[in-house]
Predict the structure.
Amino acid sequence: MRLIGRSLPGPRQTTLPDPRKGNYRVLFIRYERIGDMIMATSLIRVLAQATRTGKLDVLATPTTAPVLEGNPHVGNILTLDRRSWGSYVRLMRRLRRAHYDVMVDGRINNPPVYTSTPLLMLAGGARFRVGAGGARNSAIYNICVPEWDRTEHYIDGSKQLAIPFGIDPAKVDWQPEIFLTAGERARAEKEWVEAVRAVSPERDDAPPPGKRLLVNLSASEKKRRWPDGKFVATLCFIRSRSPRMPMIIIGLPSEWKSVQEVASATDAHPVATPKLRDAFALVGTADIVFTPDTSISHAASAFRKPSLVLLKREHKPYAPYGTPGEVISWSEPEIRQLPHERVSVALDSVIARFGVKERT
């Protein structure tokens, strides 16, 4: 790390000149999980609006790049497949040609030892490198912001990265965002028609105004995956309270059998979502979202959708940001121990409080 630090251009410590007065090329680096990229969209927007062009280039992964589709604040999307050495080599060559003036590391929870981002910064040769302080970060970043206080929400900690750009974090909106096309919304609406037919077979027109519940079964890790039987118990309780409410069940392609079985047991409509954007469109057209702690919870935040999220207590800093609804912070050793009765009452409450009567 010290060797990389000595090889980087520019002064060891500096400040960023006014980005509105220079034609700076800025690269925002964030290449971890889908939920991380969704949370980063607010910072991307804020930084982009502080530049003359109103856009940033973003370094993502092939998995997270779809989050940025249609985003008016994003210019070029560069991708890195961290499983491929060839991808690293191709990206480093592209960074050398691009001549970025500023690189911003959007990851503020870096472990004590990491090399991927510093090596990319070395390849890019940016004179200004912005990142969170702590550990050996001052050897890499020459514009360090305060280290993240992990008692704060991750997005609140990320606000510090905007200060070198002359931004007052208290004066801007920090809600994440995802942009859907008209075609994506139209395809999602067709699925909601089918969800209505699942509980009202006599209907053959568009869904009536009312409450739409989207349920995601899958989580990124096994320890966050609530059992199918408990989903069924909760949704059967909700069905007894709202017999005609359209419900859609989604999950990872690898869990399609579970999606079908839960949907069949609860008079819901199962929907395959082989593409991430398909899932986003269903979130964007739902009224309420019920999900474990995963990227779908952050998508609900991006669309301002009321949600019920099952979140392990120590993951509270990564809860959906500024989202109406409720978070059940489970403290049991495993999520499967979380009782469905507690979840049923919470979901019923969210539906009662936030279900709409009319849709515009």
Remarks:
- The chain is about 35% helix and 15% strand.
- The longest strand covers residues 74-79.
- The mean pLDDT is 91.
- The CA atoms of residues 138 and 246 lie 53 Å apart.
